[in-house]
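Hey Z.,

So I finally got round to the 6-phosphogluconic acid thing we talked about over coffee. Here's the setup:
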Amino acid sequence: MGTMKSVGMKLVICGTLEEASERAAGHVARALAERAAISPRITLALSGGDTPRPLYARLASEPFRELIPWHRLHLFWGDERCVPPDDPASNFRMAEETLISRVPIPAENVHRMPAELSEPGHAADLYEAELRKFWIGTPGDWPRFDLVLLGIGADGHTASLFPGSSVLEETTRWVAAPYIDRLKSHRLTLTLPVFNCADEVCFLAAGDEKAPIVKAVTAGDRGSSPLPAQLIRPVSGRVTFFLDADAARLIEKRDVISTQSA
Ligand code: 6PG
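And the result:
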């Protein structure tokens, strides 16, 4: 196992999801602490799904918990399912149980997506208004998250940016409420330009079924119709993949620029 460099991204490959979560927790805690040294407030966009559970649990425990200046950290979400915050499918609920309820973060620093609202479009408008209020006065047309966490689906979706979705063409909105045919439901999601303006993006992926998409995304060649996860190319160039061995099993040596021991 080791750390590899591929086209414009760093790959941290570990044996298990637990090990990858441990490495990711160290990286996230240090990254937030570094940014807190130069900025009065720091921002983190959380991912949903199941894979980040052990990462969030590690961030809420030592030695990482004491590294993070929780009172200056603002939490946002990259995407959310259109369900109430206490619903088992809620990304907020997952983060609340594994992280937020276990760390001293002020309630006003937790910027949840209002996904329980009956009108997803209205929920997206409200969240965009909250982001614009938070980032008022900062230069540029887009918010600049210090750190964004993302997962990846076997079909190449990330956050709630799904293959073939018109939301991938978004050039002005910060938050969208696409209808996902495959899920027969709406989702709330930050848009591609927002992710690509982030100072740093970290993907966490595990499991055999993710191997083909991880290979496609880390190979760098996006082909003629890139998948959503392949469109995550932050201007800063800082992308790190934390992977378990199963998810990394198809990454070929020729796709890798350099390797070093873990
Ligand atoms: C969500 C996510 C989504 C997730 C992938 C991977 O709300 O579902 O944000 O993009 O990261 O679907 O999900 P798993 O981690 O459960 O495989």
